[in-house]
Amino acid sequence: MPAEVKQEQSPSNATSLAMMQEPQEVVEETVTIEEDPGTPTSHVSVVTSDDGTTRRTETKVTKTVKTVTTRTVRQVPLGPDGLPLPEGSSPLGSYTDSIDRRYMKNGSDRFIMPQATSTLTRSYNNSYNDSYGDTHESQYVRHYGLHDGYADLTDNYGSLSRGVNYRPPRYPYMPNSYRPENSYTLPIRKDDYGHVAQPQVPMGSSTVDLNRSQPERFQPEPYGLEDDRRSLGPEEEEPYELEPDYSTANRRTLPGANRGRTHREPLRDGPRVRGYPDDPIEAELIDERHPYIHGMYSAPLAQPERGSMASLDRMGGRRSPSIDSIRKDPRWRDPDLPEVIAMLGHPIDPVKSNAAAYLQHLCYENDKIKKDVRQLKGIPVLVGLLDHPKSEVHRKACGALRNISYGKDNDNKVAIKNCDGIPALIRLLRKTNDMEVRELITGTLWNLSSYEPLKMVIINHGLQTMTNEVIIPHSGWEHEPNEDSKPRDAEWTTVFKNTSGCLRNVSSDGAEARRRLRECEGLVDALLHALQSAVGKKDMDNKSVENCVCIMRNLSYQVHKEVPGAEKFQDPSTLQAPGSAGPQRKKKDDAGCFGGKKAKEEWFNQGRKNGENDKNYDTLDLPKRTEPSKGFELLYQPEVVRLYLSLLTESQNYNTLEAAAGALQNLSAGQWTWSNYIRATVRKEKGLPILVELLRSDSDKVVRAVAIALRNLSIDRRNKDLIGSYAMRDLVSNLPSGQQRPAKNLEEDTVVAILNTIHEIVTDSSENARSLIQAQAIEKLVAINRTSQSARETKAASHVLQTVWSYKELRNALTKDGWNKSHFQPTVTATPKSTKNGKPGYDDTTLPLMEKNQDGYSTIDQRDKDCKYKTGDSSVDLTEREPLKNDTNRKHYIRSNRPAVSLVDACDVKPQPVDSWV
Amino acid sequence: MSFVPGQPVIAVVERIEIKKLRHGDNLILGFSIGGGIDQDPGQNPFSEDKTDKGIYVTRISQGGPADEAGLKMGDKIMQVNGWDMTVVTHDEARKKLTKKKEDVVRLLVTRKTLEEAVKHSKGKYPRP
Predict the structure, then answer these.
(1) Do B82 and A315 touch (CB under 8 A)?
(2) What is A335-450's CATH topology?
(3) Cβ-contact A618, A718 below 8 angstroms
(4) Of the residues A101, A532, A612, A633, which has the fewest C-beta atoms closer than 10 A?
């Protein structure tokens, strides 16, 4: 399965974490404080969260620290992608409470984050802001909280009263949604007022202080249900009756995220509590001033943060007896999943959006929740919300859908499609100008596009819209460029990346999909423009470029057969040649059973004919065009060669390299006029050395794509001579020697591709065969032939050896080197091996080059299936051409060949480990 | 310091300040990083917990600024100038470290030996 937008998902998550951690900036400052006398080790801070006893020594508080804190806070606002936002646009920076802390907290709970979807973020803000006004100890604690949890809090709590008196600075920004509707209360399961609700303060006098603010709890609530009970913010966060399945604690186990998050989560609540007025009376006053505060407070259940907070609290609470007693208080709890889904249909919009945001949060990397949402029929409701006029609502719904659509569980994707989610997403894409919503939509579509059966649906509903709304505007391409103005550069936005990723996936859905994409107005033009802009700016390593090249590569596949009017360009010499279409098919059928010597000879003849023709092409000028080509014609114009060669020269991205080589491979395949031009153009543009150089790449798939491209290019006789002279050593050096693989340890498919390329080069050229011998290849070939565990390698090596032996003029030299005829004969075990492997013999060298070429693609590492897209194609194409072979078997083989997991997302999500010097 | 959900977490961090070395137009820290949320954590040779997608110091150039500041191979970078590094992509981490306008980076790092050292010097951790 093609890669999905893993990044898509992580943003929200990563963002939230990043945001939570922003205060680290502050922490940094506190670390400095830590170096003050009194700290045991100036550089080492120890944090324990085991219980209330912290070992950290208190640090002294200075005004400067406070200032620093403020400054840093404002500096660090992060956007949804975890990167800092420009000043002023940041939720953190602009946000502060203007009324009191509680108020602020409420506001921040819902509206501060641009991506309110991430609960962690928000909650972090809460604590952050709350503690903002507090004493330095609290900041200090926060710092440590990063690494740990509760123990530090005690310290802070001790200082609670001090913090209370401090008023945080007021900021102009007021969340626009201070409305009573924001609140929403879940019915309380038990009426138990006997307990005093307590914030999650582990222990100490601070708890007492906090309790004093209880009276607020009983404020009337704006629109709550009658039997609703309301409690104060802190109480809401108490982990009553957490549903274990939905608790974020489970999700916390996310790899990597653990540390950053968990460490500081417990802190969130501590400082927050401290933000409360110490004095109940004062609290009440405040409450009266802002009666709706309570409403907001009591809305916890609808808020996405709930889950995470609660779970955190639970973690912290476990350590403290007082918390335990609190936890028994049943009045507050998180909503369970059916309740959240029910809230999606709540008449009040903020409830809907909060429920959707909470769902997104719950679904993050939790396949079980996703499945539950599906089974509880939550997906149609979310899809329905996409058409909601309020941006807050459709945005959150979209965020939830994006997370739900991610993952291996294709049923979720199908469920979205079944309730017409794809047209709804496309509708919203047309309607909204909100960049964030567009990112979410296109991210969701990217996820959906990874499932084969949905590809055509996406094409049917969304191709032209995605092209018009995203690809063309972001590519910088203009339909009718203004002569005076400079051509615009492409913008590598997330929306563009997502959309191109989606199109990249759908472009692999067979001939019809390719036709639709090629004929989609402006698409090819825009993609080419974007790539040219990338080359111009030397910015070729990013994901968007990769996606674009992959689409181009896929659309270049089989152009010589599929584009309208292709028959006009068929090379007349091929049509006359005996080895054209008909015989090729026959050869293919033979393949696998026997060596197919006869077929091979036919192929030789064909090659020879081509070679002769190519001599003419070398002097042939490219066709003169009366008008500039556009649309799909651009795919195979010789001008693209330079573009691909630039990418091959400059890009560091293996996927891009592979796709660019694959595009040249596709374009140089086939017997039509344009492929002749392409082959000659690669040579004239000095592309052969570039390709040969890439044979030394560390990346298996790059080597493979390049090898196959060289093979197609050597259809051109002059190319064959050049490749034979200059590439042989690099080709041979990629071969394993005997049992020992070379350092690169290339995969079987790559080795087979190289062997087939060598075979093509030595075929019909004793000169090249001589180069092969001089490159010390015979020893390796014989070793592969005799000892390789792979039937396909054995067979391919055997074919090369047979070809070499067929040159009588070389036998003398071979014999001198100690070889004899038996070395060049197929090993007896070859046939059994191939059956054992169960792989159809389509890699037989006697197959016509073009078809084999596709096979080369189809056998490319399946982890990268989404990068290649060829797999599906070739299977389809082979079925068309080769009725005898069962398409599904083939697929089956491919699938079973490698771990299923890697089919999903290995390609993009797990690139080679990167190591950067700084 | 691997993390178990619901369990207390103990982390010992060291603060390291590295002054970048100016080399022509380039500012050099003298170490390399691996990891990040977009990387395969299983391939990180330094992490205890193979699901840890944090940023780790993979190499130190001898005598370079990082070396002199006491950074060690295998250190996990928690923060860079206050920015969290535990949940960032590889490239984000690299960018945070290589800001041209900053001559000094302050790292919070953690490593196993640190943790042990502290444990020994301080005796037991309080446990309920």
Answers:
(1) no
(2) Leucine-rich Repeat Variant (1.25.10)
(3) yes
(4) A612
Q: 24-63 in B: which are within 8 Å (CB) of A?
A: 28-29, 31-34, 36-41, 43-44, 49, 51-54, 58-59, 61
The 10s digit of each residue's pLDDT in A94-142 is: 333 333 444 344 433 444 344 333 333 333 344 344 434 444 443 343 4
Residues 6+ apart with CB under 8 A from A160: A205, A206, A209, A210, A273, A274, A278
pLDDT at position A402: 94
How does pLDDT run across A827-866, given as a tens digit for each residue?
Answer: 654 444 333 333 333 332 222 222 223 332 222 222 333 3
Mean pLDDT of all residues in chain A? 63
Query: What pLDDT is stored for residue A828 in this prediction?
Result: 55
> Is B68 part of a structural domain of the chain?
yes
Instruction: Report the residue from A48, A259, A913 with minimal CB separation from B3.
Output: A259
Which of A48, A49, A253 is the closest to B5 by Cβ? A253
In a domain, B88, yes or no: yes
The answer to whether the CB of A556 falls within 8 A of the CB of A665 is no
- A219's CB contacts (< 8 A; 6+ apart) are A230, A287, A291, A293, A294
pLDDT at residue number A496 = 94
Q: At B49, which CATH number?
A: 2.30.42.10
Looking at residue B102, its pLDDT comes to 86
Q: What is the architecture of the domain spanning A686-823?
A: Alpha Horseshoe (1.25)
CB A122 within 8 A of CB A200: no
d(CA A18, CA A29): 18
- Looking at the 3D structure of chain B, how many domains does it have? 1
ipTM beyond 0.90?
Answer: no
Other beta carbons within 10 angstroms of residue A739's beta carbon come to 10
In chain A, which stretches have pLDDT less than 70?
1-331, 481-485, 571-627, 738-745, 827-913
The whole-angstrom separation of Cα A889 and Cα A893 is 6
Residues of chain A with CATH 1.25.10.10: 335-450, 453-480+488-562+629-670, 686-823
